[in-house]
Amino acid sequence: MRLRAGLALALLLALLPLSAPRADDGGRGEGITRIKDITKLKGARENQLVGYGLVIGLPNSGDSMRNSPFTEQSLRSMLDRMGVNVQRSTLRARNVAAVVVTAELPPFAGRGSRIDVTVSALGDARSLLGGTLVITPLVGADGEVYAVAQGPVAVTGFNAAGDAESLTRGVPTAGRVPNGALVERELPDNFGTLRSLVLELRNPDYRTAVRVADAINQHMTRRFGARGAYERDYRSILLVNPAGVNPVRFLAEVGDLVVQPDAPARVVIDERTGTVVIGKDVQVSTVAVTHGNLTVRITETPVASQPNMLSNGDTVVLPTTRVEAEEKPGQLAILNGSSLQTLVGGLNQIGLKPTGIIAILQAIKTAGALQADLVVQ
């Protein structure tokens, strides 16, 4: 009897589907994501910093002192602070460039931590390749210095010029200094004493807010025996931190919970690149669509008319224009986008280019048959 039971169990395990969720992926289904990936803590945001500085060591590609007088003034001030008197001398160096330095101070950044900075030329410098940023204070919106930047500038573009031709790739007048700024001042932080926390959705939606609050309440009821999440609106969820639990540990537990986010039906169109992105829930009411291309080609072939020999006439150029019009036959197709696959299949059957798909989607939206938001970039 035991042998038969063992054989039955082995047969049952062999018949299990091979595509069952594995233990290492958490058993997540399609569209399931962690709360930490779709929300952010209210108040924990970046702060923008800006500063003015000098980049030195450029191979004769810096600012010209005549066209950029602020570069000369800055260089004089820097040398004067270092004990070098150049007030009565004329500066004609081309290895210095005035730059604007920008950075983002992340939340909870401690004193002594490093952040990346972006360096952009302010004058007429041709390239910042090979330059070094001299110590530059970075200030916030309140005028206080929060970081100090210095270091070699990494530039991806380049500029090469000769007597008759020049070549430019990328943007040689802008670069980055990785880990080039030291944080000198910390932002006010009362995170450890907060009794209530607010999570904000990165993509606000009513259904997503409700699902996040329900998932957190199920976890808190099982873990602490009480509910503590309340959806305030379609963007934010209020969390009540359990007594005796550190907010960092509480947010770590909440962030690992998984939900299925929802989003409104939306079609995004970028006419410059011909990119079309169609959301999953986009539907199109039954509509007949036809699309034909009209091509007009104009060709100019000038002809030179010369006078006869021994005549007093002049040679003139006579214009010859040839105009051709070609209209390809259009195909009439019925689109009934009950699902994303049906809509994409219908558009593919017509055989359109991206510009044609964009024109059809805009016309369908105008006709009122596109049941989604149409975003044109």
From TrEMBL:
Transmembrane segments: none annotated. InterPro entries: Flag_FlgI. Residues 1-22 form the signal peptide. Pfam families: FlgI. GO terms for cellular component: bacterial-type flagellum basal body, distal rod, P ring; outer membrane-bounded periplasmic space. It is found in: Bacterial flagellum basal body. GO terms for molecular function: structural molecule activity. GO terms for biological process: bacterial-type flagellum-dependent cell motility. Keywords: Bacterial flagellum, Cell projection, Cilium, Flagellum, Periplasm, Signal. It comes from the Bacteria. Assembles around the rod to form the L-ring and probably protects the motor/basal body from shearing forces during rotation. The basal body constitutes a major portion of the flagellar organelle and consists of four rings (L,P,S, and M) mounted on a central rod. Belongs to the FlgI family. This is Flagellar P-ring protein. The gene is flgI.
